[in-house]
Amino acid sequence: MIKKINQLIFASAILLHVSGCSLVQANTQHPKGYETYITPGEQFKHSSFSTINNDIVELGDTRKLIILFATWCSDSQRTLKELQASPLINDPTIQIIAIGRNEQRETLEEFNQEYNLPFALVADPSREIYSQYANAGIPRLILLDKSNNVVKTLIGEQPNIIDELNW
């Protein structure tokens, strides 16, 4: 009996860990306990990243879309496919950077072979970047203005989250 209870607790913990996210703006209470640690108007905490190709990408003087995602997450996969199909992907006034939460460089390289993403990919294997912006939930989308101030934060579980990206 105790073994079955322990198995149920373990299975529940795994399910909670793997579950995705939902559309939430910063400063709102999310039913799954997701917290966002940066709010509209605040300065983004990073000004550059090291990509999976060991290049340094600086946040430019254009609008930015920062995507915190995971390769295994179906919501993240869908969001990236929707982004690829949107006009944003070819907009020269928007810089896009995707950060793989708990992802190694090699995993992101393999993922990119399938997705062929035309923007910078950054590995965050121990959540050093992610934990500065949120406690849980992916994909996270953070929109920044030209001065790197946060305009909006979103969590995307549902389809068409890309349609919410207006700034």
UniProtKB/TrEMBL annotation:
GO terms for molecular function: antioxidant activity; oxidoreductase activity. Residues 1-26 form the signal peptide. This is Thiol-disulfide oxidoreductase ResA. Pfam families: Thioredoxin_8 (PF13905). InterPro entries: Thioredoxin-like_fold (IPR012336), Thioredoxin-like_sf (IPR036249), Thioredoxin_ResA/DsbE_sf (IPR050553). Residues 65-150 form the Thioredoxin-like fold domain. It comes from Pseudoalteromonas holothuriae. The keyword Phosphoprotein does not apply. It comes from the Bacteria. PANTHER family: PROTEIN DIPZ, THIOL:DISULFIDE INTERCHANGE PROTEIN DSBE. Keywords: Signal.
